[in-house]
Write a structure and sequence with these properties.
126 residues; alpha+beta; three-stranded mixed sheet; globular
């Protein structure tokens, strides 16, 4: 309503539609670290994928704009065990952010030292 002031506890600009509605919309904000180190981030992600070898998964790695993002789902064209995955890697992503994303996509988050393994392999010369 015009003239209403939002003094609630909700973070950021939130709009409530009508007095009886429970729908609240938040503006999306993402936090991402900015790493000044110069390296080929997409190549680092590809090396990590070759190292972890996600089973029955087709993966796309692409240069994103804002934050490291992971998307995955079933690949029904290639059978019930097949899946697809996408990793967005922005030009300012850190090695650690990329390593965590690849380990998550590969389903290896339960493996101790998986992120450390990816980080160490990324430091080695190709």
């Amino acid at each position: 309503m015009p003239g209403d002031r939002d003094e609630g506890l909700l973070p950021g600009p939130a709009r409530q539609h009508g007095d009886e509605s429970a729908h609240v919309r938040f503006d999306r904000r993402e936090l991402s670290l900015r790493d000044p180190e110069k390296f080929d981030r997409v190549a680092f992600a590809m090396r990590a994928l070759r190292l972890l070898k996600p089973a029955h998964m087709t993966v796309v790695v692409y240069e994103g704009n804002f934050a490291v993002r992971v998307h995955k789902g079933p690949d029904l064209r290639h059978g019930p065990e097949s899946s697809w995955g996408m990793i967005a890697v922005p030009p300012h992503a850190s090695r650690a952010e990329i390593a965590v994303a690849v380990v998550d996509l590969a389903g290896r988050t339960h493996d101790p030292y998986a992120v450390d393994l990816v980080m160490a392999a990324g430091q080695a010369p190709v």
